[in-house]
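Need the bound structure for adenosine-5'-triphosphate, inputs here:
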Amino acid sequence: MSDHSLRPVSSLWEFANPVRFMALSGKILPFVWVACVACLGVGLVWGFFFTPDDYRQGSTVKIIYLHVPSALMAINAWFMMLVASLIWLIRRHHVSALAARAAAPVGATMTVIALFTGAVWGQPMWGTWWEWDPRLTSFLVLFLFYLGYLALWAAIEDADTAADLTSVLCIVGSVFAVLSRYAVVFWNQGLHQGATFSMDKEENISNVFWYPAVLSMLGFGLLFVALVLVGTRTEIRLRRTRALMARASAE
Amino acid sequence: MMRVSDLAIVRGGVPLLAGLSFAVEPGSALILRGPNGIGKTTLLRTLAGLQPPAAGQIEVPEDSVAYASHADGIKGQLSVVENLNFWARVYGMADVTDAVLERFALQDLRARAAATLSAGQKRRLGLARLAVIGRKILLLDEPTVSLDTASVGRFASFLQDHLDAGGSAVIATHIDLGFTATVLELAPYKLDAPALTASDFDEAFL
Amino acid sequence: MMRVSDLAIVRGGVPLLAGLSFAVEPGSALILRGPNGIGKTTLLRTLAGLQPPAAGQIEVPEDSVAYASHADGIKGQLSVVENLNFWARVYGMADVTDAVLERFALQDLRARAAATLSAGQKRRLGLARLAVIGRKILLLDEPTVSLDTASVGRFASFLQDHLDAGGSAVIATHIDLGFTATVLELAPYKLDAPALTASDFDEAFL
Amino acid sequence: MIALLRRDLALAVRAGGGFGLALVFFLIVVTLVPFAVGPGQVQLAAIAPGILWLGALLACLLSLDRILALDYEDGALELIATAPLPLEAVAAVKALAHWLTTGLPLVLVAPVLGILLNLPGPGYLWVVVSLAIGTPALSAIGTFGAALTVGLKRGGLLLSLIVLPLYVPTLIFGAEVARRGALGQPLETPLMLLAGITLASVALLPFASAAALRVNLR
Amino acid sequence: MIALLRRDLALAVRAGGGFGLALVFFLIVVTLVPFAVGPGQVQLAAIAPGILWLGALLACLLSLDRILALDYEDGALELIATAPLPLEAVAAVKALAHWLTTGLPLVLVAPVLGILLNLPGPGYLWVVVSLAIGTPALSAIGTFGAALTVGLKRGGLLLSLIVLPLYVPTLIFGAEVARRGALGQPLETPLMLLAGITLASVALLPFASAAALRVNLR
Ligand code: HEM
Ligand SMILES: Nc1ncnc2c1ncn2[C@@H]1O[C@H](COP(=O)(O)OP(=O)(O)OP(=O)(O)O)[C@@H](O)[C@H]1O
Ligand SMILES: Nc1ncnc2c1ncn2[C@@H]1O[C@H](COP(=O)(O)OP(=O)(O)OP(=O)(O)O)[C@@H](O)[C@H]1O
Ligand SMILES: [Mg+2]
Ligand SMILES: [Mg+2]
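Answer from helper R.:
Posting the output first, comments after.
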């Protein structure tokens, strides 16, 4: 597996070569982990212990350091799966199929974390665990998409078939996910009182909260990258072992 | 008519046969022989275009192939005649004639719902489909399963007429059909199946 | 062992055969022969107790009969060994042994999900079931369908051993299994099917 | 293609076919709702348009696995795939047949069930209109889901799982049209959006379905 | 019998088995309800116990045809019927396996879904209790329906049609217990009736199921 991993990279697509991918990802993975732990550690500790309580929300505001990053990564993970699926369908690079597969559980977990922290937060804020707010609702729908995607992967045994079908589902699903988002906003527009607490705009948030928030977002991003790399590498190793054992027993 | 060169086939990620080359001329039939599990069904599916070959070429005139699998694709709620007419229409042919029904001894069963046929009667119906769709090259997977001797003879005579009319056929079978045809033993092309299966997908990671 | 007297059978309201009397002694096999649709499957189902006879008696020791139908009752998601063990346990027998697997040439496929077997391999699995459930009287409906010659031989030798051990069998088949057995031609017992079928239910109104 | 459509329709109306059963399921779901939520008149009227849409959607859903699974199991799908029909056309015809045997009857019977739920007066028209416009999308999306899961042993529930999130936009806009209709509010926007979803699904999804079918038959 | 139970459970958890999917269907139905009826808090809370029961019932219903139809299609049911197991026991085991893979998970997940529907506080306990007591009846009744329709080509919807009316009493008492629980009203009577239905179904219906099976295999 060694020689062509040493050649200089002439095109981005070369990383789609499993050998090159393994070599490179093996090298950067430790750095990603270190950076991830650093960002998360500093961001969360800073956020939890060294920021003042919000005057309206008290200490519950601190959940934002988990909630917002996980929510962002939940969406980004699906987007990454979409790109990877397209690459698999068009260029048939096996690594990208496995990367999409590895991203799905991570993305689904992020969605669950966002939903859960949101619910925990909603209890003191809105006095209810759940509110059919458009944003929350579209997250719930996103979670359903993740479930369907994962279930389809799990139900198909043949790897090629599974990769093809899940890719098709991911693409069609993306279109419908965007549609759902608009539908949900439309649906709850008139009924939901605008009073819902929102810090959507950056001006609403003071720097004391902002810096640790950025750090933990970065940390979650790196965590996602690291987990996807680990997942992809494990899958690649698994398949390589299977292929090697198959060859060995054939000889 | 059908020309196959250096074909290799794979099923469920396991390479089965490789280096197959043969040609089937109009008016001739090729019989595939080999023990259970060697890959006859897979080969016929590949020739029918249902799965891509792992290597090699298949040349075959467009719209000339008909495939008959282990299963007959019969709709139990439709009658015998309705089943046949459906296939005839899908292939743009005329409805089934009495001659065809008689040929496959289905005339008494014509209005019977196909679900109530016995195993051999169902098989006869499945084979009669080949007579109404007007295709030249027939790919047949164990066509005589469940048939009694009289029906086997009937089917052999249908096939002989088909060949005489310039058609051709590739047939996987374990029994003797009683007419002259080239026999292709598949055993020499067999790849030793690995005990542990590696799919194409896995191979990409070596 | 099994004693049948003056049996009549009906399928879908149509009387098929009548006046059948035979006995199958321990150590002997009976082969049912007849053209497609005469009623072999129906007869075997009746003997297995799945449908009541229209007339006549069937005497058979309790808990001694095993039936193997056209379909094999295999669960595709379970492995070969899991399938066999399930049946063994249902019949209160010990798990499948390597000897049985070898006998049916399944040893290399033991951990394979049954869905990925070829037609003949599935059939071998279906037949291997008969070896693990420990029943004396086997009712077999076209057991050799899809089997290659080697497998047919293997099955015949299993059957011969079963008979030598004092078992017995009733077999519907169109081909020659290559061992000595009484042959029962069903054609003479055939009833001419009425063109319009009256079911038992309708008959009650006459 | 016409042969295929006619066969599918014939199969549906034969004994054991799906025709009428989706309808009856719709009827039953709608009947069970008052038992489940309690019989307060006002409350029922308020949720009536939504329940009608939900019931129609579930009835549709239940009949999806008949679209392709039966043909797959008895081998007919392989034979159809090797026949001289483009698979895209097969997928479109299958969706059409499903709509004719399921969606259309649901549309026609919805007003009757509206009575059971105390649907307010002007609601009838808009329930029917929204269902008529929306159900073709349900059939097209459902055929896509059926094509994705056809190879899998009894993919029934998996099929539901995959299809239901895809149904969300159609359901939201459809129910919104019906609800606004019942209240006499303006409903142009959701109506246009609903029509857009249907047109796009019907035009584009057969291609995705055919791709999935090809992979599954491999 | 234990072999049969173990096999059914093994089949359910294998890839393509039904396990977990009923759950997900439940989740989805409950999620779709607000889309259909609109997001008003008060209204949702009022119908929450009923919707949870209806969702559980439909999820159960969808998985019914797996109980026997798969075994029928591949011939295993005929072989099981000729095996030395009383058919009554087979029916009971099949119902038990269905409950373990469907009803039980539904009971466990119901409180979580209650949150989505703004179920009032005391409701959680009684939703769980009523489902725990009621779902075994759903499985037993469902197995009977499955046995009645097993011979019929894809009896899926017909099965629903036959089973749904049989589910009505269970649904009424179950939803009543849950609703009264949510409102803090006395609920002994419906609870006793619900328990009575379950006990009777579980004890007696396997005999009816076995009789139906015997006829269908004939
Ligand atoms: C299950 C419940 C919830 C879900 C699924 C959810 C989802 C999301 C998502 C997707 C985002 C990121 C979107 C963006 O940045 O544009 C977000 C951000 C946020 N959410 Fe939630 N949320 C939930 C509950 C809550 C609750 C209860 C509150 C507060 C009372 C809340 C307050 C916020 C805030 C302040 C942000 C940050 C917005 C920003 O950084 O621009 N969320 N939530
Ligand atoms: N479900 C059914 N309803 C009505 N008639 C049926 C049904 N199944 C079979 N028949 C009819 O009953 C007769 C006997 O069928 P059976 O399956 O017993 O024949 P068989 O001898 O096993 O034939 P084969 O050799 O083709 O398997 C046939 O004429 C068949 O058409
Ligand atoms: N779906 C599948 N997944 C994985 N392997 C399979 C699958 N179907 C068949 N196989 C395997 O592929 C090989 C070839 O099967 P195939 O059905 O082509 O054999 P065949 O020559 O037709 O045998 P038979 O005479 O028994 O019908 C067999 O070893 C079989 O076990
Ligand atoms: Mg084969
Ligand atoms: Mg027969």
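Comments: Residues 2-216 of chain D form one domain. Residues 115 and 124 of chain D are 9 Å apart (CA to CA).
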